Each structure stands twice: as structure tokens, then as C-alpha cells.
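Sharing a chain and its predicted structure for anyone who wants a worked example. Both blocks are below, sequence first, C-alpha cells second.
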Amino acid sequence: MPEIVPPPCVSHCRPVLAHPPQTMFRALVIEKDDAGYRAGVKTVGDDSLPAVEGGVTVDVAYSTVNYKDGLAITGKSPVVRKFPLHAGIDFAGTVSDSSDPRFKPGDAVLLNGWGVGETHSGGLAQKARVKADWLLPVPQGLSLRQAMAIGTAGYTAMLCVLALEKHGVAPGSGDVLVTGAAGGVGSVAVALLAQLGHRVVASTGRVAEAGFLKGLGAVEVIDRAELSSPGKPLGKERWAGVVDSVGSHTLANACATTRYGGAVAACGLAQGMDFPGSVAPFILRGITLYGIDSVMAPMARRAEAWARLARDLDLARLDALTTETTLDGALAAGAEILAGRVRGRLVVDVNR
């Protein structure tokens, strides 16, 4: 019996695709080439996402604009070290695809740090692909928007509060100073500390925001000029604890005026990276300076911070310190946050 040979494929046959069709989405892309450094919102495809072995793909709902994002968007500091790259050091969203059994499609997740938005494409985009080890489930009781209203800044504020607590700074110990209080870290720190029962003194260069800060729970608001100029090695003992996001002379003066045995948690450099201080507060008053890193903090510490935020942060106060913008609005907000013109937290709805 002769062999039956099927007819050659004709026009009705479906072609075999070498690659699945691209899904297009919008992202705030940072580029650097012979034409220079630039940032802009573009429509990109799945091939712009990094290849991650055992990775998780997330449909991003919200991101934020933090001080580091401002540096990245404007190019004021060499934050971004790989190009092109999607900006955004944090995000909250829903898993769409996962190669890791810890996460499945539909899971609500969040991310802070790990070099995302610096060496790995980040959250100012409608999609992200990251290592499963970098993700945390969104704590029960928080929406995706609330998770990013907290964001990296609020999570960093909680790390500062945890450091003070573990040092022994408790409600009733004495005043707790928060510098840069109208900014992202500062505003959440004020709200957290006040909710926990501390007497909070807020330092800000925007004295017009005194009402806003008192609404978050600050008992007293002082002008940053009291702390931002060169000072003495030791000053009058005032603070049981300090949360500082400013650095430079402000941090040095905060240390010089911290009470015997007190603690300072330092997490920022808005005034500068220098520390023009003295050893006097450390060897004469026994104060402790805690350095707070949010980028590479161990997962157990992250989980503790987020659990405490979900439990201890007054969500009504969180809403009061939060404004919302679009992905295009995030581009303009980069310069605004560096200039100190962004109050509280700025959430980005990446799908608007």
C-alpha cells in the first residue's frame, strides 16, 4: 500500500510563533547614551522586563515617589547604574505569573529596595518582574494603595521606630524629635510615634505645615533653622530619641542635644552626606547612633516592620498625609521632591 503523504501546508495553516506575542505597557524609563541622561514615560513590551530565574511577574497597581526616585529621575545623583531601566524603588500589585511556589497568580504583594529602581527595573511601570525572595505579601488590613501610601518612606520610618524601641525609648521616656518632619519618612514617623504614645517634636523648614504636623500628632513644631547650622559639640539635653532623615549639621546637632543614654536613628541625607559632629555626645552622654538601611534589610526585619505598620499606623492619619498622582505626574514630581515641595507621601497610580 503506498504511503500517504499529507499535502503541504497552504494558506489556511496557522504559523508557529517563535515567541509569544508582546504585551505592551507603560513605564517611566531612564536612559543614558551618547545623547545624554533622560527620563520619560514610554510604551514598552515584555522584553523590557529583566530575565529572572525563578522570578515573579507582577501587575503593578501603585508605586510612589521617594527622595531616591527624585535623584534617579532627575539624574542629580548616580542612583541608576544600569540602562535602560524602569524607575521606582517600590511597588504594590498582584501576581500575574510565578515560577516560585510561595506566590501564585492573584496574590497581593509589595516590594521595597533590593536595588530595584537602581540596578533592576522597578515599580514606576504597569508591570514588574523580580526575584521571589524580594517580595512580601501585603499585610492583612492594608489595601494595595495603602501599602504604597506607606511605601519605602513609611517602612523606613518604622525601622527607625523599631531601633528606638529596642534601645529602650518608650512613651514617657521624654520628647522624641523627628527631623524633616513634613517629608515622607518624617510624616509617617510623626504619625507612628504619636499613635504609640510618644510626645513628638517635629522639625521642619516649612513652618506653614505646622497645622498639618500637629494633625498627625506632633505636640510641638520647631523651625529646622534651630538644628541646621553648625553647632556646639554638646547642647542642652532635650531628646530621649531622634528619627533623622536629614543628615549633616542637623544630625550632628540632634546628637549633641540627645539626653544621656538616648538614641538617634539616622536614615537620610537631605541636607548632606557629611556628619560634622563630635564624639562628645557618645563618650560623655553615652548616646547611640543607629544607622537605618531599608534597601538590604533582612526579610525577617522587613516582615516585622510591615506587620507593625499594619497594626500601629492610624490609617486615617495615613490618608491625611497622602496625595496621589499619575505615571506622567511622577516624572514631574522627581524635581519637586528634591526641592522639598512634596508634603507627606506621594502615591503613583501607574494605571492612570
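Comments welcome. Residues 118 and 215 are 35 Å apart (CA to CA).
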